[in-house]
What we know:
Elements: H1 2-10, E1 15-21, E2 27-33, H2 34-40, E3 43-46, H3 61-67, E4 74-86, E5 94-102, H4 113-126, E6 129-142, H5 171-175, H6 178-191, E7 195-200, E8 206-211, H7 216-236, E9 240-242, E10 256-264, H8 281-297, E11 323-325, E12 332-334, E13 344-346, H9 355-372, H10 396-404, H11 407-413, H12 415-433, H13 438-444
Parallel strand pairs: 1-5, 11-12
Antiparallel strand pairs: 1-2, 3-4, 4-5, 6-8, 6-9, 6-10, 7-8, 10-13, 12-13
Amino acid sequence: MKDLESWLKERRITEVECLVSDITGIARGKITPVSKFMAEKGMRLPESVLLQTVTGDYVEDELYYSLLDPADIDMLCRPDISAVYPVPWALEPTAQVIHDCYDKMGNPIELSSRNQLKRVLALYAEQGWKPVVAPEMEFYLTKRCEDPDLPLLPPIGRSGRQETGRQSFSIDAANEFDPLFEDMYDWCEIQGLDIDTLIHEEGTAQMEINFRHGDPLMLADQVFLFKRTLREAALKHDVVATFMAKPITNEPGSAMHIHQSVLDAATGRSVFANEDGSMSQLFLHHIGGMQRFIPEALPLMAPNVNSFRRFLPDTSAPVNVEWGEENRTCGLRVPDSTPQNRRIENRLPGADANAYLAIAASLLCGYLGMMQQLNPSAPVQGRAFERRNLRLPFTLEQALERMEHCAELERYMGHRFVTGYVAVKRVENENFKKVISSWEREFLLLSV
């Protein structure tokens, strides 16, 4: 804490945003004067914020009080001194500090998404392994729109015109929003967010930011903060940035592709490669585990009703857990690389996923394959869309049911977490069902 206090004084910080990530990935916490932050060395929050839905509701009372203390007590949130960042868009010198959640006995709280990622990383550490990840974040820029019943429209760029048609990898189309992206890059640099390449994706005003590879916890923190940063930069320029999985009809969805590999912690060598550079058995088992368990863990990568709108045949998103080398029609792609850099790109998670949980789930599936020595199917040559085996759940309801009955997820992530997560998502799904869509009004109102 002395180092943290010095850091705050050097930057003349006056306020601290104390943050935790809820199940959805929303930043929750308190904004406090720096003097109070240092005096209390953390914050207290109701543990119930970890069971709050994206609509602000909670799970039913019987389940609520079975998962939480009946007195609805506070949890203790302690700052992680390795997760302290300035807030470059704030009017006053402000820092944001990511906290970890503990009960009054000092035990990590199971419902915390950041703690779940730490649990998975501890499993790897016990085996002498060190996972490495590199997320890719897709998102759309749109006009500001106050009416949620209206479809989203592309924003107006520097030229004074809206983008039309598909502009994949277009430099000029990306340059239309240079002032916004300059702020984004400047603010990320100030925070130390290790973003790399910016590209224009396939959709209209759809972009992608790549992160440099590194420690999974650090990268999850950075994705968590990047979403806040990009939204703030967009609002400054009177534009909206959205990470919805499928925000616009007839446009591609937005993914959070996760590149993952595993190193020997002692030597730094990839366990995915044999001495001669060929694919190791651990690599194949890792893929086998992802194929076996991703269909059960899918709600952690596709957490919303909207998430499943990405999974349509003959779109940019995969509809399978097949694997293949340099094959983007597979859910699990193995990019061309040197043996030391051999990795798997999990193309299934959506941009709307909680990065802590998506990375934790993706790594856990691979870990289970390595521990259980699961063999993968044969790699796919050509289009994987026609393959019928290893199909994923088609709806959020189906996916939640499979997650709820997965013994391995309950064993490694805990009963409270699996039960609480499924319950939160079911409440959100019920809220969704109460809303009548424009499609129903258009086609059923006068026809049935």
